[in-house]
Structure formats: C-alpha cells, structure tokens
Specification:
Blueprint: H1 3-16, E1 30-36, E2 41-50, E3 53-62, H2 65-78, H3 83-98, H4 105-108, H5 121-145
Antiparallel strand pairs: 1-2, 2-3
Bound molecules: zinc ion.
The site of zinc ion has 8 residues, from helix 2.
Length: 146
C-alpha cells in the first residue's frame, strides 16, 4: 500500500466511522461552532479540560469528507494531551497543511493523512476547520479561567 492510498484510507475510515461524534450538550463542556463558507462545512465541537489536560472532545457537523474526517482524527490526536501539548500539535497541523515538514509527525499520528491537502489550497480550510474550532474553544476556556 503506498502512502497516498494509506492516507486516503484514514480519511475515508474516519468519514464513515467518525470518532467522538455527537454533542453531549452538557455544562461540563465548552461549545464552539465554526463554519467554512467556501465549502459549506459546518462544525461544532465540545471541549472538556480537566487538571490542565484535554479530558474529552466531542464533535458534530456536516460537510465534505475532508472536514468531517479531520474532526474525528483531531479528537483522537488531542484527547489526553496537556493543553500546552495540544496547542503545539494544533500548530504543527497548520504548518503541515501549509507545506512545512518541520513538524511532530509522531504526535500528529493519523493527522498526517492530511499532508496531501497542501497541494489543494482550497481544501486547507476544510482540513483545518475542526482544529480551528477546538483552538478557539481552548482559548475561550483559558480566557475564562484566568
Ligand atoms: Zn470542505
């Protein structure tokens, strides 16, 4: 299996069987909604931070296979990390889709499947939508805590 086939498989698996999908609507979570008008993607995320760690994330929305699968992968990559580690991984994801190879590939795990979008600038907003949403959620939680 070549790398492009592997990447496509990760994206389709996460599109068909999304992880952590469905909102809890619980007060324990911080909710953020973002959309990507250029593709019509619509994204909701819920974030729970506990003891400085990403304790849980839920995601739900509708849109293209890139945006929806990326939300699934994002939850799997970030849950369990400290907030600081999560911020670094989110930044590495942005750098990767822009074409920078100086990134934490091991930390990004299945998210490296989105490396291919660097060749399709119109899809970068699809791939990063869920990551932008969770970044906003982290910023808002931190702003309220401090
Ligand atoms: Zn899209």
């Amino acid at each position: 299996m070549d790398l492009n086939t592997l990447y496509r498989t990760v994206i389709m698996d996460n599109y068909k069987n999304p992880k952590n999908k469905g909102l809890t609507k619980s007060d324990e979570f911080h909710f953020v909604h973002l959309n990507n008008p250029s593709c019509g993607d619509d994204m909701n995320v819920e974030l729970k931070i506990k003891d400085g760690k990403i304790a849980d994330i839920h995601q739900d929305g509708h849109g293209c296979s890139i945006s929806m699968s990326s939300a699934s992968v994002m939850t799997e990559v970030l849950i369990g990390h400290t907030v600081e580690e999560a911020k670094a991984l989110i930044n590495d994801f942005y750098e990767m889709v822009k074409g920078n190879d100086d990134i934490d590939e091991e930390g990004l795990g299945e998210a490296i499947a989105y490396m291919g979008v660097r060749s399709f600038p119109a899809r970068i907003k699809c791939a990063t939508l869920a990551w932008k949403a969770i970044e906003k959620a982290i910023d808002e939680v931190e702003a309220n805590v401090k």
